[in-house]
Amino acid sequence: MTSYSRIIFSVANVITIGKITYIMFKLEPLTNVVQKNCLISDAYHAGSYSMCTFLLKMREYYRWEQHIPLSRPLPKEELGQWLVEREETWEKTTSENPTEKYQPLTFGNTKIDPFDSTAINNQIQKEGYIYSSGYGLFNKPHFFLAELKKKEEFEDYTLLVSSREFARDLTAPPAMMQGSTIFIRQESIKRFIWEKIEEWQWKKRPDVPMAHAIGAHEKNSDLEHVLDKMVEQETLTMTYHEIGEIKAGQLLGQQWEEMLITLARSKSELLARAIRDLMADCLYTLPALLEREDKASLHFYFANFSGMRKALFPEAYDAYQNWVDSGDTAALKNICRSGKDQWHDKAEEILGFYRQENNRLEKFIESLFKSDL
């Protein structure tokens, strides 16, 4: 039995009895193809990550595939054997599929390109399912198939929220956007938040943003209750971020996406993405959280404000700390106003260089932030 077939068998056994026949005979063929495409993507792109990031992602992926509860420790021996087997499967996949060709999804006599999410969702959403595909960091293709929890119009956007996931690849972005459609993956959000809670529990420092985020919920609540509440709150925060991404994209134009493709798998790609993230958050995410006076989500946002974003924009973290110390949000509001222009200008500067001398773009981007990193 192949690895992706094992996944399908496990999924079928956790569905309620009333739906087993439907899952086995209607969803299984579709899930098989989606999971096979996930396998192909992982086989070609898993090597793009650093060893530390790769191992963390593999641990999380193993937990999902084996249906291991978040609070249960992973079995080290079984995990090690699984890692070896998965890498062997990837090697076999690349040798059998040397052109990185992804399989179409079949509905009756109709075959649909796996990157045509709209057409595929037109086929499955009425049955209560959701599908998404696209390209992420390092130009890695992402695919997932899940239960559709809710669909609603949010301002000028269509919001699709998923719950249980039947097929996914190594990387499971909690939120994505395609055009004016926003995909929010609550199962991935829950795993992401739990990892942050677990990391905080190891250190248990009372003065860090994660401690404030947890403390913003009801006192004496167990972590499971806090986790569920945080998933719902961060679903909204991630929706705000994706709206910010859309607004940033409208300002920067399609050429920004074309530029990212030329930077794939480079440090400059990470820098460019961090710039757009900061622009999106100053445009929409942070102003929306401040308007709602959502203290818990503001704390959680800055609990994850790290790496390149924090190195590039330390003023934002200083403004957050000012709010923690004083209770006054003025500094945060000011940093949003100045930040949206600052990062828009920086992005436009990069685009201008790309239009003129794209063969030297990576060195140019790195030179802009050499003193910050």
Structural summary, described in words:
By secondary structure, this protein is an alpha+beta fold. It has 2 domains: 185 residues, no CATH class; 164 residues, no CATH class. It has 15 helices and 7 strands. The strands form 2 sheets. Strands 3-4-5-7-6 form a 5-stranded mixed β-sheet. Strand 4 and strand 5 form a beta hairpin. It is globular, with a radius of gyration of 21 Å.
Q: How many strands appear in the DSSP assignment?
A: 7
Total number of distinct structural domains: 2
Describe the biggest sheet?
5 strands, mixed
Task: Supply the helix-strand structural class.
Answer: alpha+beta
Strand content: 5-15%
Mean pLDDT: 89
Write down the overall geometry: globular
User: Order of strands side by side in the largest beta sheet?
Assistant: 3-4-5-7-6
Regions with little confidence, pLDDT below 50 for 5+ residues? 1-25
The N- and C-terminal alpha carbons lie at a distance of 47 Å
* Order of helical and strand elements: HHHHEEHEEEEEHHHHHHHHHH
Number of helices: 15
What is the CA-atom radius of gyration, in angstroms? Answer: 21 Å
Residues in helices, as a percent range: 55-70%
